[in-house]
Amino acid sequence: MVSVNHYLILSLLMFSIGVTGFVIRKNAIVVFMCVELMLNAVNIAFVAFARMHGNLDGEIAVFMVMVVAAAEAAVGLAIIIALFRNAKSVDTDDAAELRL
Amino acid sequence: MEGLPLLSTIIFLPLLGAVMLYLLPVCKPASDSDGEVSRYTALIFSLMTFVLSVILLVAFVPEQTDMQFRESASWIPSFGIHYQLGVDGISILLVLLTTFLMPIIILASRSVKDGVRAYLFHMLALETAMLGTLLATDVFLFYIFWELMLAPMYFIIGIWGGKRRIYATLKFVLYTVFGSLLMLVAIFYSVNAYAALHGEYTFDLAKLQEGLVLSRNVQIWLFAAFALAFGIKVPLFPFHTWLPDAHVEAPTGGSVVLAGVLLKMGLYGFIRFAYPLFPLGAQVFGPYLALLAVIGIVYGALVAWAQSDIKKLVAYSSVSHLGYCVLGFVAFNVASTTGSLYQMLNHGISTGALFLLVGVLYDRKHTRLIADYGGLAAKVPVFAFLFLVFTLSSIALPLTNGFIGEFLILSGSFQTFPILTAVAVIGVILGAIYMLGLYMKTMYGELDESKNGDLTDVNSRELLVFTPLFALVFVMGIMPGPFLRVMTPTVESYVQNVQAKMVTVAQEELDYDFNPAEFSPDTVLSKRRGEASPLAQVRFEGGLQ
Amino acid sequence: MANVSMVDVLFALPILVPSLGALLVLLLDVFLEENWPRGIFTGVVLVGTLGAIKYVSDASGVETTLFSGVLYHDPFSVYFFLIITVTAALTLLMSEGRLRQEGIENPGEFYALYLMATAGAMIFVAAAELITLFLGLEIMSMALYCLCGSAVRLSRSSESALKYFFLGSFSSAFLLFGIALLYGLTGSTQLEVISENLVGSNSFVVAIAMGFLLFGFIFKIGAVPFHFWAPDVYQGAPTPVTAFMACTIKASALGAALRVLWMLFVENYEYYQIWSDAVWMIAILTMIIGNVVALRQRSLKRMLAYSSVGHAGYMLVAFLAPMEWGGGAALLYYIAGYGVMTIGAFGVVLAVTAAGAQERDGDDITTFNGLGNSSPVLAALMTLFLLSLAGLPPGMAGFVGKFYVFSAAVSGGYTGLVIVGVLCSAVSCYYYLRVVVAMYFIPAEAGAGDASVAPTVGLSMGSALGLCAGAVLLLGLFPSFVYDSAKLIVSGLY
Amino acid sequence: MEHSTVVESAQHLTHHVTTQGAALGIIALLPLVGSFLAFVIGKKNRDSAGWIATLAAALSFGCVLNYFFALPEGGAFEHRVFEWFSAGNISVDFLFRFDQLTAVMCLVVTGIGSLIHLYSIGYMAEDESRHRFFCYLNLFLFSMLLLVLGGNLLVLFVGWEGVGLCSYLLIGFWFKNLSFAAAGKKAFIVNRIGDAGFLLAIFLILLNFGTIDFVELGQRIGGASTELYTLIALCLFVGATGKSAQIPLFVWLPDAMAGPTPVSALIHAATMVTAGVYLLARMHYLFVLAPLAMVVVCTVALLTSLVAALIALVQNDIKKVLAYSTVSQLGFMFLAAGAGAYWVAVFHLVTHAFFKACLFLGSGSVIHACHHEQDMREMGGLGKIMPWTAATYWISTLAIAGIAPFAGYYSKHHIITALQTSGESNSLMLAYGECFATVATVVAVLTAFYMTRSACMTFLGSYRGHSHPHESPKTMVLPLVVLAFLAFVGGYLLEHQLSLAGYLHSVLPVHAHGESEGFLASLLHSWPGFLGVGLALLLYTKLTVVPAKLYGLVPPVSKLLADKFYFDEIYDFLIVKPLYLFSFGLWKGADQAVIDGSVNGTAAVVDMTGEVVRVTETGQLRHYGLFMFAAGVFITIFYLIL
């Protein structure tokens, strides 16, 4: 029987993968995907909890999060493009003019 | 005088003057290119303040030992903070010293060439802050004015100072702020302890003095915080190193006001706040403060001897002289405390005058090195004469003002700390050594014509600056009675009160001990759980049973 | 349940006005000529918002929530609405006519995003429910990401946007996970319900949830150890945006955090211990690191960023001080005081950094050399703001704010924390005064171009700075006016 | 003596019939006004200054005479000018008291002072700033009168410091010469060392007896421990050694000769330097209670007189000889005081004032004549050129030599007798009395010798100098004559006609002394004087080659004497230089390096912390993410879970 815990573990795993990717990857697009991955991991948790509690709050939350994720995609890609226009690179390591 | 808030007027009149400097069209740089009109405007305001403070002195009743001319208005009611003023025998003469020195400083501001208006603005603002510090009887108000003294002084040193002015002024401000912020914490603690006992917040000094009951251990900590703030300001050895830097770099007026009034604020703080609020802490710290004071006396004198810069020498002599004041106060009997207060006035006059004299030289030759002078007595006899008089006042020759203070201090503190005082007497010798050494090296010997042949004697304006100081040196040395009579009744009752507190509270000896664990939030939780009862009730009142 | 009454809509007007205003700006931008007065329009919208807030505050007799428990409608929200709107308006006022100088090429978008961020900030602070909270946060943040990058041709601007965007989303993901965990524990996203149901829950999971929530909030507040973005983003973003972030956004994040964390964990004594331990540590680190690192900065915006980190530390001290002894009220006061003095300081930076200086370290401290001579009023105002930030009279607002905060903390028994706080405060004097040193004590280098020329201060900038200065003085001289009402407002929370 | 007897006697000696309201202040005020006028008017008209000052001094002398004659036996005048200051348990009146001791002192001060003022008119006639000189001189008179008129220790102290100041100003009168100025400074500072002891004594007295009024103090004396009396007495004596140039603080006096010669006569011979003796006499009731202190006084005094006399033997500067002679004679006065014979000390003080003032003025006259040449080797044969000066100088030499019936004999003879009998009143002195007396006799021989030597070298033989000496003007000669007359008959008068002992017995302990001796006996008793004078005459008029040979006999000894036992060098090496180096080290080492270093160091540490922490700001997105995540995990685990 697949219990809430299993979903939670999956969610945590995805979240961790997202975090790890965020920390180790340099390509802005990939980093961005990792963030999306983290959001979706939370979505899984929400759905699982909603199921557990038997109310819809969690599922509504998921919709909201998806909307946010979509908006984030728009904003994020726009920013990456702007960066690319200025720096000719989407490598986050190159965007280190502001430091110290 | 009924109805006119005299103290507020005295405090804020200089500030009004400062603002007027910028509002009056005649003071605009366009119509007042050499700053002459500004100088007169500032002079008029500072003189008005002085006149008012003389009126205050006349109306003052020396026999009445508590605060007079009280003013009180609620300011921040939720914390029991009042705009509250008052003057008593301890503060009144310091107020007079402040208002007396300011016109002199403004008169002597001729040496400031650039930004006269701003200079005068800062000076007048500083006067307001100093007067507020002296007259505030609410701890919060006092603290505000106390901190307010910093900013103008910071600019005065920073803008019109010497080569290393930035270093000096930053050091001055940071050092002072460092001390006073810790004092702020102690103030919070006291106020909260009071609130815990009496169920209301108050920053009223009288109420705190009356109602604050703290155990010895707590008092030690709180007193230490206050002592640090005030000790830095005094400056007490070993917190004195900002002073020589600040003095050397400050313009003449800045040095005068720094030595004349600002340093006194530290000791005034001890007298007004630290001792009455924490008598047990004071009892414990008293001997150590005396020790530091005596070290300061001898040390300051010795180091002054080694200086080659006149201003630095006088600065270190201040360390030594303030050591006497502190020693006199912490010896804590009527004679020594009176002497200490008196010596504060004397130091303001004689050291202030010495800085003005150095300023006269500096204006002409732009050097403060002893080695650059010599044999001036022949060239500038009036200057030499004035220099001699203030030197003698500084080394406390009888019939000058310095002697009365020094004698009262030493003979008074001899009753409390005989050995330490005996050591302090060495300072009397050393004082003669470095001051007369300075005098000899600058005034006596052959005049170097090529260097100082063109030196001119003090002009009439400078003479006007020195005359009142000169007169006071002798008036206060020969007839100290009128001055002492203003302060002695207050000092007597003050010393009695505080000493009584030292005794009675020591007998009750609270069992509540200062607990460092209180620094951690662990204890807070448990206290929070103890239903709505204010936490402090557990902490402060518990000990009283 | 799903009844949306007219009253709800009316009471939500402070949020709706700027939101609609944002849409209108975008719409009008399409139809009107190139140079239509967008700034004035935005200002009108914000004034309208103020009117709406007035209306709401007058009407708020009964405490209630709007839209069936989505938004709070209480004095606390109103207070923050007010702070958010006023700081936003002040920032707008001072940036009037200076957008191009900052490299912002599309003012229409700028103003729309600006209003949107304002609305988001209000939702964030008023949310009575965690998903709404998240939405508010994202609305605000998303707009801000864009605002940071609104100087599209400046690589610094895009870089700051990139950093802010990624780190912001990163932290909101954590916040969201925390929300999910709480939802899992209690079955609700309503704050009040969660607070009730949390009692007796698995404290391990609660702790993790708390940690994740803290992550999110503290990131927005800009406290150590989640402060890394702040200096880079503050420096890179156009100055008006930086000011907006430093004041408006920080205020709203603090408001939201205060309400949420307080309701969830502090009121539940069970969790108070772990909560206070963690925040204690964070507060100390924030004060120390913020102030100490600021010592070494040459870029003024960067220095102010670290200073804002340091101030976040002081505010966390207030956070920690128990509310019934004035912690909350102190925080509310502090936010107000901090807001005006920071805007003022950034305003002067904005005025002094000349056009196009973004790329060339235009905010380097040497830019300020000799300002006291070339532009005495500006220098005097800057001095006032800096002294206030340092907590020294005559910068009264900052002084009284610190006074309230530390006093409350001492009442709460956090004397050690306060000692660290005041020491850091003493350290902070150094870097604030360094600017004063530059302005007054060091003459401008001859022929250094921008520096020696007196900066122009227009009517809008002048009035904004004047208002800020007035507020700094008045808040400090008559603090009871704000503090007493803050006390009342906070008393509604517990 | 029993403690109670001593106390009783002290109480008795301070029990005056006091008369209030006498305007004693006028005595002191006159010279003060004179000082002011001499400067102000003298500034316009230089010549008037001297006359104004002299007039003021003379008027003051007149006042003193007036009170002297009005003073009833065993009585005193008091003048409470005003309450000076009072705070707590300390209350000090500006109080003048005129009793027999004060009367004697005042007469000496104003009398000799007037003469020296008169003398100075001639001596300083050519000086550009003589108005300043007379201003200082009158100021000195004012201070000295405060000192002797003061009815309590503090007024005395005012005068005490005041004379110190005037001495400083007058020694450094020709301040363009830096070494003169330095001598003035040295005098002031060495005096200050003594003053510190004096101050401590005042504090101790105030603390233990609650008063500093001489009369009240005398009444309250008794009851305290001997140690306390000894401590107080020693502290007072430290003060006295400073002012009266005793070992170890005598080094300033020879240097003080840098001042104009009248100053040396007035301040550094006749009056100021005797203030220490006056102090001891004034506080006699404390000293008699401290036998040990008396022994210390005696020992120090004897040592001083011997050392100074030895040094004086080989000096060639006429004023230096007189200076060391003064130190030596002051030692004699302290010997008397230490032996308990205070009135004898005062006696010698008075006679010494006569002959030493005369000697100094005489030397001044010589120096004036020789155009400021002070080396006796450049003089000689002046007796013929300036007979008045020579005659008075010789009379005074005989007086100081202690040859009857000249003044010095009587006081010196009393001193030696007092030493011999000192054991009677002070058991500690029993063993040493004779010994002290013997050494004192030796010193007396030495005194006679070196003084005669100086007189011989100056006035006998033939002139060895290069200028054209001349006799001094009348204003200078007149005082010489008066003083010489006093040096001649003063001792006899005070011993037999005026009976100083009887006059002072109501204020000072006067022990019954043997009946007056006949003239022949006194001649017999002046054998040390005859011996010294004779020897010197022999060596410096007949066997003139011998002194040089003697001098070369044991070079180390003569060098030691010529170099004044290296006191200055030793002080310089042991105290002054190390202290200055210490100060310098304190400044550079302690103040700048340690104290300021730690202040700046703290700031630097904070600054460096900033620099170190700044390293985390890499500007790299990934790092920030990692840091944040790690910190988040850390906080969660460490605080929230653990």
Q: How would you explain this protein's 3D organization?
A:
The complex is a heterotetramer of chains A (100), B (545), C (494) and D (642). By secondary structure, chain A is mostly helical. Chain A has a domain at 26-91: Helix Hairpins, CATH 1.10.287.3510. Chain A is built from three helices and no strands. The longest helix of chain A has 31 residues, at 57-87. The mean pLDDT of chain A is 89. Chain B has two domains: 6-506, no CATH class; 515-544, no CATH class. In chain B, strands 1-2 form a two-stranded antiparallel ribbon. In chain B, strand 1 and strand 2 (81-87) form a beta hairpin. Chain C has one domain (6-491). Chain C has a two-stranded antiparallel ribbon. In chain C, helix 3 packs parallel to helix 5 (107-126). Helix content of chain D is 74%, strand content 4%. Chain D has helices spanning 3-13, 25-44, 46-70, 100-123, 130-149, 153-171, 178-209, 214-220, 226-243, 252-255, 261-270, 275-282, 284-288, 291-313, 318-338, 342-369, 382-385, 387-401, 407-420, 433-459, 474-497, 500-504, 519-525, 527-542, 546-553, 555-562, 567-614, 621-641; strands at residues 17-19, 75-87, 90-98. Chain D folds into two domains: 3-562, no CATH class; 567-641. Classes of the chains: A mainly alpha (100), B mainly alpha (545), C mainly alpha (494), D mainly alpha (642). Chains in contact: A-C, A-D, B-C, B-D, C-D. At the A-D interface, helix 1 of A face helix 28 of D.
Computed Rg of chain B: 24 Å
Task: Assign a percent range to the helix content of chain D.
Answer: over 70%
Average pLDDT level of chain B:
87
SSE run of chain B: HHEEHHHHHHHHHHHHHHHHHHHHH
- The total domain count of chain B is 2
- What is the radius of gyration of chain D computed over CA atoms, rounded to a whole number of angstroms? 30 Å
Backbone structural class of chain D: mainly alpha
Count of helix runs of chain D = 28
Count of helical regions of chain B: 23
Reconstruct the topology from this structure.
The complex is a heterotetramer of chains A (100), B (545), C (494) and D (642).
Chain A: H1 4-24, H2 28-53, H3 57-87
Helix pairs in contact in A: 1-2, 2-3
Chain C: H1 6-11, H2 13-31, H3 38-59, E1 64-66, E2 71-73, H4 75-95, H5 107-126, H6 130-148, H7 155-186, H8 191-197, H9 203-221, H10 229-236, H11 239-266, H12 269-294, H13 300-320, H14 327-352, H15 371-374, H16 376-390, H17 396-411, H18 415-441, H19 459-477, H20 480-491
Antiparallel strand pairs in C: 1-2
Helix pairs in contact in C: 2-3, 2-5, 3-4, 3-5, 4-5, 4-11, 4-14, 4-19, 5-6, 5-11, 6-7, 6-11, 7-9, 7-10, 8-11, 9-11, 10-11, 10-13, 11-13, 11-14, 12-13, 12-18, 13-14, 13-17, 13-18, 14-16, 14-17, 14-19, 14-20, 16-17, 16-18, 16-19, 17-18, 17-19
Chain D: H1 3-13, E1 17-19, H2 25-44, H3 46-70, E2 75-87, E3 90-98, H4 100-123, H5 130-149, H6 153-171, H7 178-209, H8 214-220, H9 226-243, H10 252-255, H11 261-270, H12 275-282, H13 284-288, H14 291-313, H15 318-338, H16 342-369, H17 382-385, H18 387-401, H19 407-420, H20 433-459, H21 474-497, H22 500-504, H23 519-525, H24 527-542, H25 546-553, H26 555-562, H27 567-614, H28 621-641
